Amino acid sequence: MFTRPEQNYVIKDTVIDGILNDEAQPLCQIAKMLPEGATVLDIGAGSVILGRVLKRAGKHVTIDAIEPNAFAVELARPYYRAIYQGYAQDHFQAIRAISYDYVVLADVIEHISDPAAFLTELLKFLPESTRLIISIPNIAFGGVRLALLNGTFDYVDSGLLERTHLRFFTLATAQKLFDLLHLSPERILSLERSFYRVEFTRKNIKASLLQIWRLANKSDARAYQYLFVLTRKSNHTKAVEHLGASTMNILIDALVAWPAIKRIARRWKVR
Fold first, then answer.
1. In sequence order, what DSSP letters do the residues of the chain get, joined into one string?
2. What is the DSSP pairing of strand 223-231 with strand 184-192?
3. What residues are paired with 162 via a beta bridge?
4. Residue 188, strand partner residues
5. pLDDT value for 11
6. Contacts by 239-243 with C-beta closer than 8 Å and gap 24+?
7. Can you give the pLDDT of all 271 residues of the chain as single tens digits?
8. At 104, phi and psi to the nearest 5?
9. CA nearest to 105, candidates 10, 249, 228
10. Between the CA atoms of 159, 163, 164 and 170, what dihedral angle is there, to the nearest 10 degrees?
11. Burial code of 14-51, b = ≥16 C-beta within 10 A, e = fewer?
Protein backbone atom coordinates (compact mmCIF):
# COMPACT_ATOMS: atom_id res chain seq x y z
CA MET A 1 0.00 0.00 0.00
CA PHE A 2 2.57 2.61 1.05
CA THR A 3 5.80 3.13 2.96
CA ARG A 4 6.75 5.59 5.66
CA PRO A 5 9.78 6.27 7.90
CA GLU A 6 10.03 4.08 11.00
CA GLN A 7 10.05 7.07 13.38
CA ASN A 8 6.55 7.98 12.16
CA TYR A 9 5.20 4.82 13.79
CA VAL A 10 6.32 5.85 17.29
CA ILE A 11 3.43 7.62 19.03
CA LYS A 12 3.55 9.19 22.50
CA ASP A 13 1.00 8.34 25.19
CA THR A 14 -0.13 11.98 25.21
CA VAL A 15 -1.32 11.53 21.62
CA ILE A 16 -3.46 8.57 22.67
CA ASP A 17 -5.02 10.64 25.45
CA GLY A 18 -5.67 13.44 22.98
CA ILE A 19 -7.46 11.06 20.62
CA LEU A 20 -9.77 9.85 23.38
CA ASN A 21 -10.72 13.45 24.18
CA ASP A 22 -11.34 14.47 20.55
CA GLU A 23 -14.85 13.70 19.33
CA ALA A 24 -13.83 14.50 15.74
CA GLN A 25 -11.14 11.80 15.80
CA PRO A 26 -12.30 8.60 14.05
CA LEU A 27 -10.46 6.29 16.47
CA CYS A 28 -12.22 7.97 19.40
CA GLN A 29 -15.57 7.21 17.77
CA ILE A 30 -14.54 3.66 16.85
CA ALA A 31 -13.59 3.00 20.49
CA LYS A 32 -17.04 4.20 21.54
CA MET A 33 -18.99 2.16 19.02
CA LEU A 34 -17.26 -1.23 19.38
CA PRO A 35 -19.34 -3.31 21.83
CA GLU A 36 -17.79 -5.16 24.74
CA GLY A 37 -16.72 -8.68 23.79
CA ALA A 38 -16.56 -8.01 20.05
CA THR A 39 -14.01 -9.75 17.84
CA VAL A 40 -12.23 -7.12 15.72
CA LEU A 41 -9.70 -7.08 12.89
CA ASP A 42 -7.66 -3.90 12.37
CA ILE A 43 -6.43 -3.87 8.76
CA GLY A 44 -3.48 -1.53 8.26
CA ALA A 45 -2.76 -1.10 11.98
CA GLY A 46 0.00 1.39 11.18
CA SER A 47 1.10 3.17 14.35
CA VAL A 48 -0.82 0.72 16.57
CA ILE A 49 -3.05 3.58 17.64
CA LEU A 50 -6.36 1.70 17.61
CA GLY A 51 -5.04 -1.08 19.85
CA ARG A 52 -3.61 1.46 22.27
CA VAL A 53 -6.75 3.61 22.24
CA LEU A 54 -8.94 0.60 23.06
CA LYS A 55 -6.63 -0.46 25.89
CA ARG A 56 -6.47 3.08 27.34
CA ALA A 57 -10.28 3.36 27.08
CA GLY A 58 -10.68 0.09 29.00
CA LYS A 59 -12.64 -1.48 26.16
CA HIS A 60 -12.65 -5.30 26.41
CA VAL A 61 -12.59 -6.62 22.87
CA THR A 62 -10.57 -9.30 21.10
CA ILE A 63 -8.54 -7.55 18.45
CA ASP A 64 -6.15 -8.82 15.77
CA ALA A 65 -4.25 -6.78 13.21
CA ILE A 66 -2.70 -6.89 9.77
CA GLU A 67 0.23 -4.59 9.06
CA PRO A 68 2.89 -4.71 6.31
CA ASN A 69 5.64 -2.81 8.13
CA ALA A 70 7.93 -5.07 10.22
CA PHE A 71 8.86 -2.26 12.64
CA ALA A 72 5.18 -1.44 13.29
CA VAL A 73 4.39 -5.13 13.78
CA GLU A 74 6.85 -5.36 16.66
CA LEU A 75 5.37 -2.22 18.27
CA ALA A 76 1.90 -3.72 17.96
CA ARG A 77 2.44 -7.08 19.65
CA PRO A 78 1.51 -5.95 23.21
CA TYR A 79 -1.81 -4.51 22.03
CA TYR A 80 -3.21 -7.25 19.77
CA ARG A 81 -4.04 -10.92 20.28
CA ALA A 82 -2.46 -11.77 16.94
CA ILE A 83 -0.78 -9.64 14.32
CA TYR A 84 -0.10 -10.74 10.76
CA GLN A 85 2.72 -9.12 8.84
CA GLY A 86 1.93 -8.35 5.23
CA TYR A 87 -1.07 -7.11 3.30
CA ALA A 88 -4.65 -8.25 3.86
CA GLN A 89 -4.51 -10.15 0.57
CA ASP A 90 -1.74 -12.31 2.06
CA HIS A 91 -3.95 -13.42 4.95
CA PHE A 92 -7.44 -13.93 3.52
CA GLN A 93 -7.60 -17.54 4.71
CA ALA A 94 -6.71 -16.49 8.27
CA ILE A 95 -9.42 -13.82 8.07
CA ARG A 96 -11.97 -16.43 6.97
CA ALA A 97 -11.09 -18.70 9.91
CA ILE A 98 -11.91 -16.18 12.65
CA SER A 99 -15.37 -14.85 11.65
CA TYR A 100 -14.81 -11.31 12.90
CA ASP A 101 -17.68 -9.17 14.16
CA TYR A 102 -16.00 -5.98 12.91
CA VAL A 103 -13.27 -5.22 10.39
CA VAL A 104 -11.73 -1.75 10.77
CA LEU A 105 -10.04 0.10 7.91
CA ALA A 106 -9.07 3.40 9.51
CA ASP A 107 -7.75 5.76 6.83
CA VAL A 108 -6.62 2.83 4.70
CA ILE A 109 -8.56 2.62 1.43
CA GLU A 110 -7.20 5.94 0.13
CA HIS A 111 -3.77 4.25 0.06
CA ILE A 112 -5.01 1.44 -2.22
CA SER A 113 -4.83 1.76 -5.99
CA ASP A 114 -8.18 -0.02 -6.55
CA PRO A 115 -10.33 0.15 -3.38
CA ALA A 116 -13.36 -1.42 -5.08
CA ALA A 117 -11.41 -4.50 -6.20
CA PHE A 118 -9.76 -4.87 -2.78
CA LEU A 119 -13.03 -4.59 -0.82
CA THR A 120 -14.82 -6.93 -3.23
CA GLU A 121 -12.19 -9.59 -2.60
CA LEU A 122 -12.11 -8.99 1.16
CA LEU A 123 -15.88 -9.40 1.47
CA LYS A 124 -15.62 -12.93 0.03
CA PHE A 125 -13.77 -14.01 3.17
CA LEU A 126 -16.07 -12.37 5.73
CA PRO A 127 -19.38 -13.63 7.14
CA GLU A 128 -22.52 -11.79 6.04
CA SER A 129 -22.88 -10.50 9.59
CA THR A 130 -19.46 -8.77 9.72
CA ARG A 131 -19.62 -4.99 9.84
CA LEU A 132 -16.98 -2.84 8.17
CA ILE A 133 -15.88 0.36 9.91
CA ILE A 134 -14.16 2.61 7.37
CA SER A 135 -12.80 6.11 7.88
CA ILE A 136 -11.67 8.22 4.93
CA PRO A 137 -10.29 11.75 4.50
CA ASN A 138 -12.58 14.25 2.74
CA ILE A 139 -10.96 15.97 -0.23
CA ALA A 140 -13.84 18.51 -0.25
CA PHE A 141 -12.70 19.91 3.12
CA GLY A 142 -12.71 23.71 3.19
CA GLY A 143 -8.96 23.93 3.73
CA VAL A 144 -8.33 22.05 0.48
CA ARG A 145 -10.81 24.23 -1.41
CA LEU A 146 -9.26 27.46 -0.14
CA ALA A 147 -5.76 26.20 -0.88
CA LEU A 148 -6.80 25.49 -4.47
CA LEU A 149 -8.25 28.99 -4.76
CA ASN A 150 -4.80 30.22 -3.74
CA GLY A 151 -3.17 27.98 -6.36
CA THR A 152 -1.68 25.42 -3.97
CA PHE A 153 -2.06 21.64 -3.70
CA ASP A 154 0.96 20.73 -1.58
CA TYR A 155 1.54 17.18 -0.40
CA VAL A 156 2.42 16.71 3.28
CA ASP A 157 3.70 13.93 5.56
CA SER A 158 0.39 13.63 7.39
CA GLY A 159 -3.04 14.99 6.55
CA LEU A 160 -5.61 15.14 3.77
CA LEU A 161 -2.93 15.58 1.11
CA GLU A 162 -0.58 12.96 2.53
CA ARG A 163 1.94 12.09 -0.15
CA THR A 164 1.09 8.37 0.06
CA HIS A 165 -2.60 8.82 -0.84
CA LEU A 166 -3.53 7.19 -4.14
CA ARG A 167 -7.26 7.93 -4.10
CA PHE A 168 -9.32 10.94 -2.98
CA PHE A 169 -12.94 10.81 -1.78
CA THR A 170 -15.88 13.07 -1.08
CA LEU A 171 -18.98 11.92 0.79
CA ALA A 172 -20.75 11.32 -2.53
CA THR A 173 -17.93 9.31 -4.12
CA ALA A 174 -17.48 7.20 -0.97
CA GLN A 175 -21.20 6.42 -0.93
CA LYS A 176 -21.05 5.56 -4.63
CA LEU A 177 -18.21 3.10 -3.92
CA PHE A 178 -20.13 1.42 -1.10
CA ASP A 179 -23.32 1.26 -3.17
CA LEU A 180 -21.36 -0.49 -5.90
CA LEU A 181 -20.29 -3.11 -3.36
CA HIS A 182 -23.85 -3.46 -1.97
CA LEU A 183 -22.72 -2.16 1.41
CA SER A 184 -25.35 -0.27 3.37
CA PRO A 185 -24.46 2.36 6.01
CA GLU A 186 -25.75 1.83 9.53
CA ARG A 187 -24.07 5.07 10.58
CA ILE A 188 -22.30 7.92 8.80
CA LEU A 189 -20.32 10.36 10.94
CA SER A 190 -19.06 13.67 9.59
CA LEU A 191 -15.97 14.52 11.66
CA GLU A 192 -15.59 18.27 11.34
CA ARG A 193 -12.64 20.58 11.99
CA SER A 194 -11.68 24.22 11.67
CA PHE A 195 -9.78 25.04 8.50
CA TYR A 196 -7.19 26.76 10.72
CA ARG A 197 -6.43 23.90 13.14
CA VAL A 198 -5.08 21.29 10.74
CA GLU A 199 -2.17 21.18 8.31
CA PHE A 200 -2.94 24.27 6.20
CA THR A 201 -1.07 27.53 6.77
CA ARG A 202 -3.03 30.80 6.86
CA LYS A 203 -1.10 31.97 3.82
CA ASN A 204 -2.26 28.97 1.79
CA ILE A 205 -5.93 29.42 2.70
CA LYS A 206 -6.24 33.21 2.76
CA ALA A 207 -9.69 34.35 1.69
CA SER A 208 -12.30 37.00 2.36
CA LEU A 209 -14.51 36.63 5.40
CA LEU A 210 -17.46 36.15 3.04
CA GLN A 211 -15.74 33.19 1.33
CA ILE A 212 -14.86 31.67 4.68
CA TRP A 213 -18.38 32.15 6.02
CA ARG A 214 -19.91 30.50 2.94
CA LEU A 215 -17.61 27.49 3.26
CA ALA A 216 -18.01 27.24 7.01
CA ASN A 217 -21.78 26.98 6.49
CA LYS A 218 -21.34 23.86 4.34
CA SER A 219 -21.15 20.61 6.31
CA ASP A 220 -19.18 18.91 3.54
CA ALA A 221 -16.57 21.69 3.79
CA ARG A 222 -16.31 21.34 7.59
CA ALA A 223 -15.87 17.56 7.31
CA TYR A 224 -12.22 16.61 7.63
CA GLN A 225 -13.00 12.88 7.63
CA TYR A 226 -16.02 10.61 7.28
CA LEU A 227 -16.60 7.47 9.30
CA PHE A 228 -18.89 4.73 7.99
CA VAL A 229 -20.30 1.66 9.71
CA LEU A 230 -21.29 -0.65 6.86
CA THR A 231 -23.26 -3.87 6.62
CA ARG A 232 -24.48 -6.12 3.84
CA LYS A 233 -27.99 -5.99 5.28
CA SER A 234 -30.33 -3.57 3.57
CA ASN A 235 -30.93 -0.41 5.63
CA HIS A 236 -32.87 2.77 5.17
CA THR A 237 -30.80 5.81 4.22
CA LYS A 238 -29.09 7.10 7.36
CA ALA A 239 -28.82 10.76 8.27
CA VAL A 240 -25.27 12.02 8.60
CA GLU A 241 -24.22 12.70 12.22
CA HIS A 242 -22.14 15.87 12.66
CA LEU A 243 -19.38 16.03 15.28
CA GLY A 244 -16.62 18.54 15.93
CA ALA A 245 -16.09 22.15 14.82
CA SER A 246 -19.09 24.36 14.08
CA THR A 247 -19.46 27.27 11.65
CA MET A 248 -18.90 29.65 14.58
CA ASN A 249 -15.68 27.88 15.61
CA ILE A 250 -14.26 28.38 12.13
CA LEU A 251 -15.30 32.04 11.93
CA ILE A 252 -13.74 32.77 15.31
CA ASP A 253 -10.48 31.13 14.17
CA ALA A 254 -10.59 33.21 10.98
CA LEU A 255 -11.11 36.44 12.88
CA VAL A 256 -8.32 35.84 15.40
CA ALA A 257 -5.61 36.56 12.84
CA TRP A 258 -7.59 38.96 10.66
CA PRO A 259 -5.46 42.13 10.03
CA ALA A 260 -8.20 44.52 11.18
CA ILE A 261 -8.69 42.58 14.40
CA LYS A 262 -4.95 42.58 15.02
CA ARG A 263 -4.83 46.35 14.58
CA ILE A 264 -7.69 46.86 17.03
CA ALA A 265 -6.05 44.53 19.54
CA ARG A 266 -2.77 46.41 19.28
CA ARG A 267 -4.55 49.73 19.88
CA TRP A 268 -6.31 48.42 22.98
CA LYS A 269 -3.02 47.01 24.24
CA VAL A 270 -1.38 50.40 23.89
CA ARG A 271 -4.20 51.98 25.91
1. -----GGGG---HHHHHHHHT-TT-HHHHHHHHSPTT-EEEEET-TTTHHHHHHHHHT---EEEEEES-HHHHHHHGGG-S-EEES-GGGGHHHHHHH--SEEEEET-GGGSS-HHHHHHHHHTTS-TTPEEEEEEEBTT-HHHHHHHHTT----BSSSTTBTT----B-HHHHHHHHHHTT-EEEEEEEEE--TTSSS--TTTT---HHHHHHHHT-HHHHEEEEEEEEESS--PPPPEEEEE--HHHHHHHHHHT-HHHHHHHHHHHH-
2. antiparallel
3. 156
4. 228, 240
5. 77
6. 239/188, 240/171, 240/188, 240/189, 240/190, 241/187, 241/188, 241/189, 241/190, 242/190, 242/192, 243/23, 243/24, 243/29, 243/189, 243/190, 243/191, 243/192
7. 456 666 677 778 899 999 999 999 999 999 999 999 999 999 998 878 899 999 999 999 999 999 998 888 898 899 999 999 999 999 999 999 999 999 999 999 999 999 999 999 999 999 999 999 999 999 999 999 999 999 999 998 889 999 889 999 999 999 999 999 999 999 999 999 999 999 999 999 999 989 999 999 999 999 999 999 999 988 766 799 999 999 999 999 998 866 555 555 556 554 4
8. -105, 130
9. 228
10. 50
11. eebeebbebebbbbbbbbebbeeebbbbbbbbbbbbbb
